[in-house]
Amino acid sequence: MNNWLQLTLFVAALALSGTAIADKDKDWQKRGSTADKVEQIIKTLPSTAHVMIEVGERYQNLYWAGKLGQWEFAEYQAEEIVKLIELLQISAPKRAATSQVFLEHAMVEFDDAFEKKDWNTFLHAFRTMRAQCMVCHNDNDHGFIVPPEHPVTADSVILNLPR
Ligand code: HEC
Fold it and tell me: Distance (Å, rounded) from C-alpha 4 to C-alpha 25?
């Protein structure tokens, strides 16, 4: 190998290892200050859009569990919707106040419906909840997102509906 080639290879190897070191330095999980780490972790918290995908899915599951008379499963879906909105209050503080409105008004009729195991009482409770979904969408400049009054199907494998 001539000297020139040797030197070129040496410089290239040096540059590569330099990049590796620089990448390692950028690894905030290993080298970041506590403040950096907190800042980065906050950025990974679920956004409203992320949470809403699951809320939407549970909305369908809740409706169909009620329609199929699977009352315990319906109750479980309702509880999970509440937990998701509580999670949103923490992960998206700018939605905290409107989330609180939902938590106070949306789910108030379900206890009665689950106790009676009655479709019409349930449907009334579901409509009350849906109205509050829309109140929150309107108050957060997303009034164009309108959950369907009668979801045509639901995703949960437990309900085993055609998709
Ligand atoms: C705290 C206010 C709030 C509540 C309560 C709320 N939403 Fe939302 N929802 C939003 C916002 C804001 C968006 C738009 C997402 C964004 O800003 O990133 C959204 C978006 C959505 C989406 C679209 C998700 C996507 O990206 O495709 C669905 C579906 C949805 N909401 C369903 C519901 C249902 C169903 C309920 C009631 C059970 C509900 N939401 C309750 C604020 C809310």
Answer: 32
